[in-house]
């Protein structure tokens, strides 16, 4: 079968031939339909995040997949079921986090991440996966099923953000999403209805397709070149929620200043080490006197994938059309990895059914 | 009646005569028994925190009080009831936070704090207070009732810290309290039983009464001069909870490094502005990849005072004996404000019954 891999020492993915995998006990064989690409994939390609499977010279990339079961192999799945795989797998037999359905909370060393770290991903014509990791998707959502994983990332982050505010009566109205990449825009669309006033921060000039999406969703575009994050309350309003999806480390700290009293900042970016000055006294004081919270969040579990399927079903068609700017076959898979101002969300198509 | 006040422009409290207050509608008149002193009082004396009541040249200090109802004044309280007053009052008629019983979550401008900011405190022979702000205490706890307020501060902080970890299965075992002042030690005593392994950080040489208390409680003393907060995981272990009660701004950031994966840092200190360098990239990355949280917490509400009464009742007598190093009458009230290594928790005694 064909697979898209990154080889050790290289930064550009290539198409290779690999043997079709055989499902082990408790695993199903899945024919891959589509696999999305996100910022983590680009970091994996650059070697800034993740790692190769032990003893191998390449990594099959891709962690945002949707496929069709071709061999249930004794699991409760049926041939033809459309499924989305979760990302984390136990590295050396099961551990407590996987056993209780919370691999997203496993600490380093207690998980591999398919397509990212220590285990092959899904950008291949077939993959195998344990039954517990395969979340069913209604057939009519198959084409967009590759969005379930990124949506589940926000489902989890919002569960944790809301939990952090559950010790009191919290009625949030304003939310600021930092980052107008595909995750930021998906999150903005997900927060509609829950928040009365939405803002999304980027640093693009108009006309720009992401700014159009932000405004179509009823959000306000905030240009960080004009309004730094810490000045958002002065220019707009204090935010009940800040959702950081930029990976820009200063945003983690400026988010605290952007919050309204009792607000929460959800952090999702994964920056490299970077030392800089902060007014740590003022930040500390503000966290305390204004009862603010900061919550870091990574990965997501099968329950959150299930919620993400429902969420995907409720997103407006027009938004989804605008978000997905390209789906490419294996003959032009390189286009999936383009990074320019007209590319928002892309996927590779490995099969249509 | 006699009252202990701080006058504008001064930093030392003085004993003055004031008229006995008359209870307004919905208020009871309380004879004050004891009023504790904490770090916030010292900040108020120095002018670093809080403010005078509008148009007045002095502030009656003290916010950790216990007293006896002498005139119920039509409230459901009875003469002789032992009560502890909460601290926040609405500044200009009730607002939503007070109406729903969560004045601790009110933003700046929507509260006064008695004895701290904008309203007279309790260090006087009598005070009046609305019925909703008076929490009953069993008569046998009257002598130690001044500890209910500081205990309620930790009750609230722990409610928020636990809430932030309630979106997943969190089974914390290790806790580090930063600060061996009276709040730190009270917190350490409160966390016994809930946490298997307790640590408390200070910077004192042995022999020291706070180190003895830490060890009597089964905790491990961490000398910050030998083991900085960020090195605690290497020397001891990663902490499921870090509780910051030092007001030292660098601790807010170092706490993140001290946490185990999935841990939470509760911040309670109120430092002044202070700019310094942090490895913001590494902190941001660690918050995200290890699902860590930071929660700021200030003040507490009547429900949390009620929980604090039960908590006080469960603390070991020996600990309480060691914690309260001095209770002084009005003739030697200055001793209540001593700050030396043999002073832990003190109170002024205004009446014995």
From TrEMBL, chains A, B:
SUPFAM superfamilies: GroES-like, NAD(P)-binding Rossmann-fold domains
Record's catalysed reaction(s): D-glucose + NAD(+) = D-glucono-1,5-lactone + NADH + H(+); D-glucose + NADP(+) = D-glucono-1,5-lactone + NADPH + H(+)
Enzyme class per UniProt: oxidoreductase
Gene3D superfamilies xrefs: Medium-chain alcohol dehydrogenases, catalytic domain, NAD(P)-binding Rossmann-like Domain
Record-level GO BP terms: non-phosphorylated glucose catabolic process
MF terms (GO), sorted A to Z: D-glucose binding; glucose 1-dehydrogenase [NAD(P)+] activity; NAD+ binding; NADP+ binding; zinc ion binding
Stored CDD domains: glucose_DH
Alcohol dehydrogenase-like N-terminal domain mapped to chain residues: 24-138
Protein name, as recorded: Glucose 1-dehydrogenase
Originating organism: Halorarum salinum
């Amino acid at each position: 079968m064909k697979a898209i891999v990154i080889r050790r020492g290289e930064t550009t993915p290539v198409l290779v031939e690999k043997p079709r995998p055989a499902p082990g006990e408790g695993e199903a064989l899945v024919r891959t339909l589509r696999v999305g690409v996100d910022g983590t994939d680009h970091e994996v390609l650059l070697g800034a995040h993740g790692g190769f499977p032990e003893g191998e010279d390449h990594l099959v990339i891709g962690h945002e997949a949707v496929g069709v079961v071709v061999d249930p192999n004794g699991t409760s799945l049926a041939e033809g079921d459309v499924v989305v795989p979760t990302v984390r797998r136990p590295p050396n037999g099961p551990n407590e986090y996987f056993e209780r359905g919370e691999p997203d909370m496993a600490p380093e060393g207690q998980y591999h991440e398919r397509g990212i770290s220590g285990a092959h991903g899904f950008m291949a014509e077939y993959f195998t996966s344990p039954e517990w990791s395969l979340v069913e998707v209604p057939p009519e959502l198959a084409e967009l099923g590759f969005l379930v994983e990124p949506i589940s990332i926000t489902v989890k982050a919002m569960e944790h953000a809301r939990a952090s505010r559950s010790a009191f009566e919290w009625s949030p109205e304003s939310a600021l999403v930092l980052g107008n990449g595909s995750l930021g825009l998906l999150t903005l669309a997900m927060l509609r209805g829950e928040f009365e006033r939405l803002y999304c921060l980027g640093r693009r000039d108009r006309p720009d397709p992401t700014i159009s999406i932000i405004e179509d969703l009823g959000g306000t575009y905030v240009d960080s070149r004009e309004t730094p994050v810490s000045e958002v309350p002065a220019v707009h309003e204090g935010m009940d929620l800040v959702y950081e999806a930029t990976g820009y480390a200063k945003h983690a700290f400026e988010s605290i200043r952007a919050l309204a009293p009792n607000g929460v900042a959800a952090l999702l970016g994964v920056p490299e080490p970077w030392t800089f000055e902060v007014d740590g006294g003022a930040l500390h004081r503000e966290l305390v006197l204004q009862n603010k919270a900061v919550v870091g969040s990574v990965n997501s579990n099968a329950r959150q994938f299930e919620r993400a399927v429902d969420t995907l079903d409720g997103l407006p068609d027009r938004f989804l059309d605008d978000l997905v700017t390209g789906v490419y076959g294996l003959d032009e898979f390189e286009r999936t990895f383009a990074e320019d101002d007209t590319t928002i969300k892309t996927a590779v198509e490995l099969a249509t059914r």
